[in-house]
Each structure stands twice: as C-alpha cells, then as structure tokens.
Amino acid sequence: MDVRSLEFKQRSVIALDEPNLQKALKQGKAGFQGNRARAIDLVPEWQQIRSDAKVMKDHTLENLDYYLLQYEAAVEANGGKVHWAPTAADANRIITELVTNAEAKLVVKGKSMVSEEVALNSALEAAGVQTVETDLGEYIIQLAGEPPSHIIAPAAHKTKEQVSDLFEKAHGGPRIEDRPGLVTQARHVLREKFMTADIGITGANLFIAESGQHVLVTNEGNGDLCSSVPKVQIVITSIDKIVPTLEDAAATIRLLARSGTGQHISNYTSLYGGPKAADELDGPEQYHVVLVDNGRSTMLGNAFRDMLRCIRCGACMNHCPVYGNVGGHAYGWVYPGPMGSVLTPNMVGLEQTMDLPNACTMNGRCAEVCPMSIPLPDLLREHRRLQFQRGLGGKVARGTLAAWAAVAKKPSIYQTLTRPAVKVMSYFGGKSGVYKTLPGLGSWTSQRDLPAPQGDTFMAQWRKQQKSKKS
Amino acid sequence: MSGRDQIIGNIRRSLGRDEPLAEQQVAALQSREAAHRQHARPQVGGDLVGQLKKQMARVQMTVTELGSEAELGEAVAEYLREHQLPANISIAPELQHVDWPEALEVHAGAARSEDLSSVTACICAIAETGSIMLSASASSPATLRFMPDNHMVVLCRAQVVSHLEDAWQVMRDQPGGISRAVHINTGPSRTGDVEQVIEIGAHGPRRMHVFLVD
Ligand code: SF4
Q: What are the residue ranges spanned by the domains of chain A?
C-alpha cells in the first residue's frame, strides 16, 4: 500500500467535514470506551495482570532469538514449516511461491494486519491469484477498495447504506438494507468461497515457543474456517508476537479482548500447530508460518523497543482525541492512531510521516489504557526529537524554535523582551480576556482563542511579592 | 545469507550480543518454562458450574442439564423440535456410542456444507470465561464446530475447570498430546462490523447449546 502519511493535514480536514465518518467515529468511541471500562471494572486484579504481562513480554524480547528458534523447532516437530521474511518483499515472495506451488486459484483470508503491512493482497493479485477477505469488515473494505480504518474494526467508517450499495454491486440484486440481511448474505457468499478455496491465509494474534502453536482470535469464526477447510494453511505474523509458554499466552489473552471490545474473551480463541493427522477427517495437509521482521529487529535495539510489546488491541486509538476526530484513513497507512504514529515512521521512514508524531496532544490517555504499558507519548516525543535532530521539518518551525531557545537560555534578555510584550497583550486583551484572532496565527486561532495575559509576567510578580514580604 | 540468519543476526546485534545465549542462561530459560509459571488472573468463585453457567448466559449460550448421558439422544431430538429444525444431525464419531432415537437421521464425520446441526463432545469447559474447549482428532472433526448453524456440545460436570491455565493442562494431557487444532469457543459467532452493532451468526454457528451431564 502507498504511504500517504504526508497528506495527514489535508486528509484530516476532509475527514472533519465528512458527516458519515463523524457519526461512525462518535458511535465507535462511545461503544469501545464504555465496553472496555465495564469489562475492566469486573476484574480487580487488572493492574497486576497488566504489569505481569509487561514483565513477561520484556523477558521475551530480551531473549527473542532463543524463543524464535525454540518455536521453529517445535513447529517442525509438529510437521509444519516456518519461513523467515526479513522484509515485506520477502514475505510476499515466500507466500506467492507457496501459493503457486500449490497451483491455487482461490485464497480465502482471515484478517491480518501484518498482511496489510506487507501488502500481500496486491502481490497475490499480481501473481494472478484471487484472494477473498472473509472477516466481514475486511470483506466490505476489500469490495470498496479501501484500507482498514481501525485495527480491529476495519470498516468502522462505513454506514449500513454504503454496505448495501457495495453488496448490491458485488452480489447483484435484490438490494438488502437491513443489518441481519446483509450479514446473512455475506455469510452465504463467503461460505461458497470457503468450500472452494485451495488455501487459507490468516494472521496470528500470538504464537507460543513452547508448543509451536499460534493463537488466532476472532468473533466471527471466519479464521477457523480458513484454517479448517482448505488443503493448505498459511499463517503470516511478525516476530514480536511470540510468547514463551501457554501460561504467558493466557496473560495476553486476558488483556486482549477486554482492552479491545470489552469481551472477557473473544468468541473464538483457537490454537493451531501443524497439519492434520493422517486419520483426521478434515484440516489442512500443509501448515506454513511466515515470520515477518520488517524493521522490528532494528526497533529491538533502539528507543522503540517498548512498542514491540503491542498486542494490537486498539485501545489507544479508541481513547485518542485525534483519532476520534479524524479517523484511521487520515494517518495514510495501515496502522492508525497512537500505535500507528509510533510504528509507521519505524517501518516506512520518518521522512514519509512528518506529521504523525506531531498529531498528538500529549494528553496521555493512550498510555493509561494500553494493556501492555507502552509509553506511547514518550515514543512520539522521541520521533519529534529525531525529526529535529535530523534536520527534518519546516524551516519556519525550526527557525522559530531556535530563536526562542537562544533567548530563553538567557534569563535577563528573556525577561527584558517578554515583560513589555505581556503588558501590551494584557492591555489590548481588554474585557473579554481572550484573543479571537492574531496576525500570522490565523490557522491556530481559527479553532481556539488565546487567553490574554493577566497583568504582568510571573517573574515580575514574584519579585514584587518577595519585596513586599521583606518590607 | 538465509532469512533466518539475517533476522536472528539482527536480533542479536540489537540485544548487544553476537552469540547465542550462554548455556547457563539457556538453563534459566528452560527452568522458567518447566515451572509453567502463572501470572495474575481474575478470581473465580467457588462454585465452578454456577460461575460457568453465569458466564455462558452472558454470551448467549444456552444450557440443558441432564441426569445422565442416556438422556442425551432424546434431549437433542427435543432441541431440534423446539427450534423447528429438521431431524438430522452430524455428530463427532466420538458420540457414535450414544443411543440416538430412531427418528433422528445421524451422520458421523466431518461437517458438510449443507449440515444445519452438529453434536460434539469437548475436552473441558472454563468457568472463568464460560468457554468450551474442543480438541480436533479423527473422532472429533474441527469443521463440526464452525460450519453448521447449530452446535450442540456435551459436557460433563467433572470437566469444568476454573481458569485458562487449567484448560492448558487438560489440553497437554490429551492422549496423543496436543492436537493440531484446539478451539476455545465462547458463544455463537458474532460480528460488529456493520455500524458496530452486534449481529449473531456471522460465519460460525448461530446457536451454541450445552448439554450439561451429571
Ligand atoms: S499500543 Fe497498547 S493500546 Fe495500542 S494497540 Fe498496542 S497494546 Fe493496544
């Protein structure tokens, strides 16, 4: 997928004026936030579960090479095969080869953010293989030719009417307008695909070194049909999703559904670990896992290691005021919201994503709700620091900051300059006490007012107070 | 260089060591694994079956309690009548010994796309979440849990465990070891993908019913 993160500002402006999107975002936010809060209220042990999971994951990352190799050996002992993909291109090449070797015509897919990250569907399309997304949300956006706008609710931005239009066009009439009818129609159309597909491809929410299993979490059951009906099962996931043991997996499973949808556990939490036994009546004959790196092993060694604890629950975007206003597409790539603004620059480059680390109010809600205690605002600040250090960013902003820094470091000059300015602004601020417009700051004041300074500078007031105490 | 060597090499560089872990460190990791160290978890009240039923009700699972497995055949027939479903079922071969009523048409094996109702056993149920754990094998095909509209599960009271960790132990102890496919199913299939309103019956069963046997 093309990276369009540089258009963040333009796309945000469009998003703010899009009534359907605004309605969907409000609905989604209220639902996600309320459901999460209610689920967590029922678990007094929540903070302890959370901190145990953080310790567990930090331990895993510290020994990542060991656990990945242990996992590979376990999968092979189960009769499966692990493929290693250092880059997105490697992942696509490996999977395209597996698919062409199997002479597959039709691939059914479960929802996988890693496959979005590497743009697997277009690679398969280029190889002449029909690929059908089976998660209802993913199916809808595939019909619309759009990327997901939320990591766990990919079609969150689409209204029922828009889904009706898409289905009518793809499936033919009669037009269906009610929600249950739409779900049932998709069920029938996609069931047919499951029955005729040669290969099922899914993601994995986590995978377990000890047992060589991967865990797949869905509510629809589509991932399980992908993993049970076709003859070949391919799993695409990334190296950071590993946990050492089943007990460690339990810790993660407990956090995932509650943080995302507010369920105690998702409807289908499935563990897969190899091809079918000879006497089984169903199940795949081949089991392949593609482990994607795509920049993660580098993050392990820099300031962004904490981000590798992410379990892709979506809580950070559900609580982000910026995401809540502009939606996922404004971010211009596959991962939106706070986690996306940290990840995307690491995967596609800081130059391509200038606005993302800056589209943050530093309110800290994301870090508070993150089940894996990822310090998202700190990591965004680190991106800002790197932008500045590498000389990226607008000349005006850099110049202004440099001038401010030069003056601020010299208190006597700073005070001499600010005192008259404050007095003037205080005088003209008048009765209303706010500035509704300011020359040169039109776009800033179009959304908010600047409070006028009251009286004198802090330093001047402080000196006055000290003097009167002494006398 | 192979993809594996590249990734592992890069990981080690990032971790500040070019070598694999030393023997002593490996031993520490092995003992961590062997200990099956458990993490904090939500408390589950003393009455496991009561807690299980409460959780199952939350996720739209229904339960019929039976005095013994001898009542199963008739109970299944009754369930089908009550929901105006045709009198045929696909069963997991593990349930072939059941004395099914003559009026029921019974097919033992994997699910076929036209199957409306299935009956399977399970390996345990988890009170913490109200879930059923099923393990795929020749006598319990995985497709029976996902394709038919109505999935009926036979569960014995003694099979109810408290937490996920207890279920892992049941899974590890299966004859033949851990199956290639283990499913923890918690209620009928659902989706919130159209305007974030929950609809039941996306791809998997529209109903999930448990026969709880003494
Ligand atoms: S950063 Fe935290 S809150 Fe956001 S998706 Fe990842 S785990 Fe969830």
A: 43-297, 410-470
A312/A112 Cα distance (integer angstroms): 11
Chain A residue at shortest CA distance from B185: A268
Nearest to A153 by CA among A24, A48, A8, A330: A24
CATH 3.40.50.10420 for domain A43-297:
yes
Q: What contacts A404, CB < 8 A, 6 or more positions away?
A: none
B34 and A245 Cβ atoms separated by less than 8 Å: no
CA dist., res. A45 & res. B128, Å (int): 13
Which residue do the tokens 């005006």 mark?
A396
Residues of B in contact with A251 (CB under 8 A): 39-40
**Chain A neighbors of B185, CB-CB under 8 A:** 267-268
Domains defined for chain B, CATH in brackets: 3-39 (no CATH), 48-213 (3.40.50.10420)
User: B205 vs A77, A202, A301, A410, B75, CA distance in Å?
Assistant: 33, 20, 45, 71, 19
Q: Which atom of ligand 1 is nearest to the CA of A366?
A: 3
CA of A374 to the centre of ligand 1 (A): 7
Tens of pLDDT along A177-210? Answer: 999 999 999 999 999 999 999 999 999 999 999 9
A81: helix, strand or coil: strand
Q: Check if B128 contacts A (Cβ < 8 Å).
A: yes
Bridge-based pairing of strands A199-202 and A206-208 is unpaired
On the 0-12 / 13-18 / 19+ scale of CB atoms within 10 A, B40 is middle
One-letter amino acid for residue A106 of the chain = L
List pLDDT tens digits, range B10-58.
999 999 998 999 999 999 999 999 999 899 999 998 899 999 999 999 9
- Let me know: does A109 contact A124? Beta carbons within 8 Å: no
CA-CA distance, A379 to A356, in Å (whole number)?
A: 12
How many Cβ atoms are within 10 Å of A362's Cβ, its own excluded? 9
Q: Phi, psi (5° rounding) for residue B36?
A: 45, 50
| Residue position matching structure tokens 């609809």 | B199
Q: What is the pLDDT of residues A297-316, one digit of tens each?
A: 999 999 999 999 999 999 99
Which DSSP state fits B137?
B
**CA within 13 Å, CB half, B27:** 3
**Alpha-helical runs (H) found in A63-178:** 64-77, 88-101, 113-118, 120-126, 136-144, 160-171
Q: β-pairing, B199-200 with B88-91?
A: unpaired
CB pair distance less than 8 Å for A222 and B203: yes
For residue B135 the two structure tokens come to 């393990």
